[in-house]
Write a structure and sequence with these properties.
Elements (H helix, E strand, L loop, with lengths): L1 E5 L3 H9 L5 E8 L4 E6 L9 H26 L5 E4 L4 E7 L2 E7 L7 H11 L1 E5 L1
Antiparallel strand pairs: 1-7, 2-3, 2-6, 4-5, 5-6
Length: 130
């Protein structure tokens, strides 16, 4: 049997991801129940939404995305990443041992940063034999 062991703290993961590109604004690590386990943002970043709007959107968004991805994964395999381009932000989502990593970025961040994030996440945990 194999167990995954975290090699980096959640704070270290967020910091490394924020350092990938100056356009990354906010990193949230979401647990298996859809709650924020840890988040970090660049000091100058102000939220686009109020706390209430963020809470309502997060509860709705996480359920919808998890449902869609879970259903589609039955046919296409597990997701590697998700990105959605809005006019004001670029949203990335990545599966992670803890649940998911969600990143908001400026809309001009190149999609080539995806491979750098995946490498950070891959290095953030190790698989050990139990």
């Amino acid at each position: 049997m194999y167990n995954s062991v975290s090699m980096l703290s959640l704070q270290e993961i967020c910091k490394k991801i924020l350092d990938v590109h100056e356009g990354f604004r906010w990193v949230k690590i979401i647990d298996q129940e859809g709650r924020i386990a840890f988040e970090e943002r660049k000091s100058y970043v102000e939220p686009y939404l109020s706390d209430d709007a963020m809470k309502n959107l997060r509860e709705f968004w996480i359920g919808v995305i998890q449902g869609i991805v879970g259903k589609v994964a039955q046919y296409w395999g597990p997701p590697q990443h998700l990105h959605i381009q809005f006019s004001k932000i670029l949203l990335f989502g990545f599966p992670h041992i803890s649940g998911a990593v969600v990143i908001t970025a400026e809309p001009n961040v190149p999609l080539t940063t995806i491979s750098e994030i995946q490498e950070i996440l891959k290095k953030s945990y190790a698989v050990e034999q139990a």
